[in-house]
Amino acid sequence: RHSPTQVQIVLIDPKRVTFPEFDGSDWLWSPVSDFSTVIRDVSPAIGMLQAIVEEMETRYRHFEQLKVPHLDGYNQSSPAPLPRLVIFFDEIADFMSEKPIKQALEASAKRIGAMGRAAGIHLFLATQRPDQNVITPILRSNLPGRIALRVASEADSRIALGMDDGSAAFLLGKGDLLFQVGTSKQRLQALYTDPRLLHQVLRQHPRGQQSETQPIGVTVDVTAEEVRNQVPPNSAATVSAEAIAALIAYSRKKGWVKARDVQSAIWTLRSLSSPQVRFLFRRLEAQGIGATRGTAEALEWCFILPQIGPGGRKEFLG
């Protein structure tokens, strides 16, 4: 029902075998690459959660510019609507055994749980071991929605649902579940998805179908004129349109910006000052995104561009 331009997902699968069909799917979100995969290791998973927090903060800056309170209002007003972003963390137990990793996971979950819904970002954490060391007080207080399938004991049920509720131990299995938000609780039946049907759905949106993922009115090879037409309201626009067009083109070539994210990237960069853009690339380099040489080349493309002028000199932008 929803194309990759409307909904993007992040799949974190420490068990490594749960979502093999989704590797390379257009529905998978990635902040830096045009080819997305299921995340299966600890460090990339923590890095992805931190990137999602940054994406959430960027969205709130866009909301502030358009003076709207949430994603729906933004998408009604903006020429570059943003997709909803849904994060599925298949098993968090292994992440809760080491203190630094646990703290990083809790910090990101706390921010997303507190502010994510209005930004269209939704987080699901799952575990097969609902004990107090896995479902910590920080997670319970910041992620109020609970889904409980059948558990081994009433003690596990009370941890999963809270409020001394041991009823999840008496569910029937095979998708029989309890859904609880606050004091409201419903008994529901989970849907079963045949693997053949899932494969069929994913084949309907193969990689490279830009008609599904590319924003309307913006081509992959962005021109300076297109950049000028996408100036956010009240934008200082201190970086020239030519510089932004060159940066977008280079970032597309390097795989740092997806086709569907071009228009959003223009809005973001047109809202930044030249020093802020330089700081952005330092952060990309610090996170290991792109080699040092690639970052330096991108900076040259962005800030030192050949300009047609007296003597054919280069103009330093910022």
Explain the layout of strands and helices.
Layout: E1 7-12, H1 42-66, H2 71-77, E2 84-89, H3 99-115, E3 121-125, H4 137-142, E4 145-148, H5 154-161, E5 176-181, E6 184-189, H6 195-203, H7 210-213, H8 224-228, H9 241-254, H10 262-270, H11 274-286, H12 292-303, E7 304-306, E8 314-316
Parallel strand pairs: 1-2, 2-3
Antiparallel strand pairs: 4-5, 5-6, 7-8
In short:
With 318 residues, the protein is α/β, with parallel strands linked by helices.
Characterization of this structure:
The protein starts with 6 loop residues before the first strand and ends with a strand. A three-stranded parallel beta sheet has the order 1-2-3. The protein has a three-stranded antiparallel beta sheet with strand order 4-5-6, with helices on one face. A two-stranded antiparallel ribbon has the order 7-8. The chain is built from twelve helices and eight strands. It has 318 residues and is an alpha/beta fold. Helix 9 packs across helix 10 (262-270). Mean pLDDT is 75; it is low at 208-220 and 287-318. It has helices at residues 42-66, 71-77, 99-115, 137-142, 154-161, 195-203, 210-213, 224-228, 241-254, 262-270, 274-286, 292-303, and strands at residues 7-12, 84-89, 121-125, 145-148, 176-181, 184-189, 304-306, 314-316.
